[in-house]
Amino acid sequence: MMLDTVRDITTPELIEIRLHPAGFLPRGFAFFIDTILRWLLMLLIAIPSMFIGDSGIGLFLISIFLIEWFYPVFFEVVFKGKTPGKRLVGLKVLNDNGTPINLSASIIRNFLRFADFFPLFYLFGLIAMLTNKEFRRLGDIVAGTIVVYTEPAARRFSVPEAMPVPPDFPLSRDTQKTIVSFAERSVGLTKPRQEELAALLPQLSQTTHPQESQGAARLISIANFLIGRKP
């Protein structure tokens, strides 16, 4: 069950994404599943290692280290933020700007689990999660990551293709977002309604160049320019 906590992010392409941070209960369940799977992997390696002798013991100890520390790193980087436990629970790890987690961030957040564990049973990590609205443990805060639900919570609309036209003057980021949002939703509006809304930004929807489109069509062309679409 999702708590009523969201994080709204605007990408460099001016796409708005809504993320739902996961609380400590689903994250704890995912961690429990991954712990069981790690133990099973260690057991599978321990059985043949018993018959190799001293070298088998060394191999087993190295395997324990690699599985314990790099199991989550491998799955988060290769499988887009999802360990098997997170996948089963419906969670994934992202950078806190909404982009896929990278290798360095995954290493930092997972290697700092020892700090979350102190003084006992991940007490520091639990306190950190309960004292910030995005339920981030210490490793997440330092690495700049966030664990979210994988349910489709992002609202993505397509900007209709048009010849990109730069605005006549610099625009604030809020104005840029407004223009892109208008263009995305214009496909569901009637032509009169499009022109009515475009008239709210007369300084942008009109031009002194007769060869250029005006009104809603001009705003859509500006939106194409803002998202980086090429002619």
Mean pLDDT score, rounded? 85
Major sheet, described briefly? 2 strands, antiparallel
Low-confidence stretches: none
Query: Termini, distance in Å?
Result: 45 Å
Strand content: 5-15%
Order of helices and strands: EEHHHEHHHHEHHHH
Secondary structure category: mainly alpha
Report on the architecture of this protein.
The protein has 231 residues and is mainly alpha-helical. The chain has two domains: 7-149, no CATH class; 173-226, no CATH class. 52% of the residues lie in helices and 8% in strands. The protein is built from eleven helices and four strands. The strands form two sheets. A two-stranded antiparallel sheet has the order 1-2. It starts with 6 loop residues before the first strand and ends in a 5-residue tail after the last helix. InterPro entries: RDD.
Which key phrases capture this entry?
RDD family protein, single chain, membrane, two-stranded antiparallel ribbon, transmembrane, 231 residues, elongated, mainly alpha, 4 strands
